[in-house]
Design goal:
single chain; TIM Barrel; two-stranded antiparallel ribbon; alpha/beta; 317 residues; 11 helices
Length: 317
């Protein structure tokens, strides 16, 4: 079984290893067959997982999740989805259409958390979006309000935006980037601030879009249809060299770099759940095994924090 943690002031108990459903949508990591997608979600739930993170913009992801949930007790699953229409005042009314479509695809009457997907830095737009989400909450269509803060770059502007949305006071759940390579939000105090404010913390990009699987050597280039093609060649080589360097730190008992990276993030006491993607059950079971490993030794964690200290910007786009 997967360990559970509290999702901030929502009171929800969620699996510390959540299922990130971007990859099964088939839009950014290559085509995924329906059977593989549905069976992967089913395997996650049958292994004791209960948190699934998706979005309206993740291709067929919501549809496959809806199929996997058929015949299951809805109350036992925590569903997070996102609307990408919170960026401008003109687009905010479309959040209702996004939610309606999400509920239809997911085959449910509500979502546990609706997140603003890469929301606006403009305080006025933020208030408008949250105002609409409060109406959705009042109607019972969503239970909690969330914000998935912009990536893939993590900068001082990201930190400021996190503080802005925490201070607003009505965002119950945050989704942010955090990995052994990019630790900025932790050492700049955002995770501690979330903890003190009772904001649940969902961590994404733990494996840095697959870079931290160790599958790619320096010099590797991605296809134009792969979202990882956005990184410049220089930035990509910097990332892949650091990934290669990290291999030397993997302790006995940890099978590979992916598991090592998951262990590092799970060691942070302030997070609620770590969402990791999988395109087939085999990848999922690898992630589950990583989450079941003993904690990394404290001296090693200290070295890893030093390794990533003030280096986040090196790995941004």
């Amino acid at each position: 079984m997967i360990n559970k943690r509290r999702l901030g002031r929502t009171g929800l108990q969620v699996a510390e290893l959540g299922f990130g459903a971007w990859a099964i949508g088939g839009t950014s990591y290559g085509e995924v067959k329906e059977q593989d997608a549905v069976s992967t979600v089913e395997a996650y739930l049958e292994s004791g997982g209960n948190l699934i993170d998706t979005a309206r913009g993740y291709g067929l992801s919501e549809k496959w999740i809806g199929k996997a949930l058929e015949g299951r007790n809805r109350e036992e699953v925590v569903l997070i989805t996102k609307s990408g229409n919170s960026e401008t005042a003109e687009r905010i009314p479309r959040m209702w259409q996004d939610l309606e479509t999400s509920l239809t695809e997911l085959k449910t009457g509500y979502v546990d958390v609706l997140m603003m997907h890469l929301p606006s830095e403009d305080p006025a737009v933020m208030e408008l979006a949250i105002g609409e989400m409060k109406k959705m909450k009042k109607q019972g269509l969503i239970r909690h309000i969330g914000a998935s803060i912009k990536g893939p770059a993590v900068t001082d502007e990201t930190v400021a935006m996190c503080r802005q949305y925490i201070a607003q006071g009505e965002v119950d759940v945050f989704e942010t980037v955090y990995s052994v390579l990019r630790q900025k939000l932790d050492y700049d105090g955002i995770f501690e601030t979330c903890h003190q404010a009772g904001v649940g913390l969902v961590i994404r990009t733990v494996l840095e879009s697959g870079f931290l699987t160790g599958k790619y050597a320096v010099g590797h280039r991605f296809a134009s249809t792969d979202h990882r093609n956005r990184w410049s060649e220089k930035a990509l080589d910097t990332i892949l060299q650091s990934v290669s360097d990290l291999r030397e730190w993997i302790p006995e008992g940890t099978p590979d770099l992916s598991a090592f990276s998951i262990q590092f993030v799970l060691a942070n006491p302030h997070l609620s759940t770590v969402i990791v993607g999988a395109r087939n059950p085999g990848q999922l079971f690898d992630n589950l095994r990583a989450a079941s490993l003993p904690p990394l030794p404290k001296p090693l964690l200290a070295r890893l924090k030093q390794f990533g200290y003030h280096k986040t910007e090196l790995y941004n786009l």
